[in-house]
């Protein structure tokens, strides 16, 4: 709705919202009321604070329309995104950051060289001693109410040549202000003067000086827009291209030049290996900090795997697109999915210096493309201490090893998305935070990043590569009792079904009752199970997914579907929208006897259990057995069954007729849109 309002404002030219909440978001026209300003401002108007030179300089939080410029750089590193625009002619105060929060415009088809018009709000962030930026009027990172209109593509980039004196790095000195946000070039010869020491420079940052004027140093930032390892102290650089910004890093506020990738540093030097991860079980994708020499990069003999000692091999190497920074390796691995693997690269030259060969560099990752069940399987090391966490997460709340997993997007909550294995079942769901592109429910994705335990919620984070692989199948929600869903007990023996087993997965609480009437858009509690109503669980308005929903009166009977979320020590159901809530009426009970589904396993534990189920009417039924890794062990039923009670005996053998080992298994029952899961134990 805000985007529509913004568009109408743009068409109307001048609209005032005095005395309303909207007035706080849209101050138009910009600047104090005594100025006569055009409808459309320039980047120079935004950046020039001297109102004698730019009478229409907007005040903080003023709305600006149609600020035009060429995109000269993009911030595509998770999880806060943006891009820089500059007036085509260049010059001082002609560049500015467009901050887009959780929206990565590169994933929407925008690229360096596009000429765009931006509609938003201006501010200095942080204020003072921050960077001037244009952002969405609501100033919320999780929503995108910017308007960006592409006018043309493939335009030449403006670039100003500046000296080390003009960008001299002295903390809290503002002489770099006039070049902030624009594309500049510093001519050499430049020498790397420092990569560490005090005051701190920040990660992947270094100081350079001109060899003829070593008194003036410039801080080069190789971490904000890219990942670039600083050259060794004393290295001579021909020139550097980048975008100046003002920011505070490790307590030091200063101007720094952000390079967009390693190709912005012109020197005779080899590339550096900055990332590696699987994109298929037999394909790795390697990222270097600069364009590589094709001949040396496509020599498979220049790569090796740590598991090569056990027989793994690198069979082929191809530079993506025939040129650039990415190389795909075809491998044969003897490791299991999830095992720790390390790839090494050596003797690879850069495109600018094919004879500058890199020494051996390594990157470590989890082998193979994992299922979400692989990621969610509990780490046996922590279970004895009552901590159910992924073995791929880092210590505490830190992110763990680089990994890749595949699943279907089942729900979109701004900045947070639910993914699930298409087969469904226990341990099949996960939330991912701040992916590099918006995810669409019903589409299958390859997600590459890391996993962390965010206050005991397992999340995929720090997404570096996301591939939309086309339509997927959203699994039916698992219908479970409220008592099961709300159970926060850490199950050391993994023999009890509880909320942890369905973290991030779609679940359904059927015929529950609202416990109290809440205001519009508020989360609310429901009680279950039918006939008892002794257990409660929160129906959560996660990131505004239920905005506008007016929960009915207390004692109203509902069926609620949503992704299982964990927050503040409790499990809650997060509907994807109001349509996930089905209202049955006031004090409505469960359907009449014989009209409900039943599914049971007994005895449990057992060597050969019996599975029973009842159907209120004829229907298709599937029953399968899964192990802790989410792999299907046996298919026990698949067909059309008449109404009534049915029983199936399982002899404990898998699909190949082999006796399964003792341990925990999941019995998955599905008919129509209803899914029931029971955890069982097979004895020796």
From TrEMBL:
Signal peptide from the UniProt entry: 1-23
Pfam families: FlgD_ig
Database matches in Gene3D superfamilies: 2.60.40.1220, 2.60.40.4070
Sequence ranges assigned to domain FlgD/Vpr Ig-like in this UniProt record: 615-666
Entry-linked InterPro entries: Cu-Rt/internalin_Ig-like, FlgD/Vpr_Ig-like, Secre_tail
Keyword terms of this UniProt record: Signal
Source organism, top-level taxon: Bacteria
Keyword Chaperone in annotation: no
NCBIfam families recorded: Por_Secre_tail
Record-given protein name: T9SS type A sorting domain-containing protein
Organism per entry: Eiseniibacteriota bacterium
